[in-house]
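Table S2 (text version). Query chain:
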Amino acid sequence: MAKNRQVAVLFLLAMLLLSAVPTSLIFAAEDNNEDQDENDEKQNTYAIEHRAQKMLEIANRTATRIEHLIEDVLANDSLIAALENASLLDDFEGNVTLFEDAKDLLLIASEAIESGYYQDAVKNITEAMKTFREVYRAIFRITAKRRIAALRTRVIARGLLVAMRRALAVSYTHLTLPTN
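Corresponding structure-token output:
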């Protein structure tokens, strides 16, 4: 669980760093030759298009992962009850709403890519990724203590089952069958 969280956090941070690099630093190559300029412009357009499509793909995968996290939290009735008792359910629901708004930005970015407005798409995707990062952090912070308590309860229950099985196994080994 911790390893998955670390991978997700590293992935989100890498995406944030990659999206923060100006496209002009990555793809800019200007030349005074007009034919070369036209060719460069086509290559830059292709590069920006490719970058926008890859960013959208990564953002959609990130959204799917966060959506699974939200579904897991919503499926855990004891966790929802704990959030409600701690008056954190409204915070959680607010973050879910923020997440949905960020997903809408991805839809707008997808439409922008289809229309050829790659710079606008990159801006929307970057904004969505920033929101995803904040939502993930907030949901993790809100649910962390409650999830650890739930995991402890499961570990204790598993330990009790193991202890009961051992006790039963020991009691059966002490039984001896009558020999003739």
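Notes on Table S2: The longest helix spans residues 118-173. Residues 108 and 124 are 7 Å apart (CA to CA).
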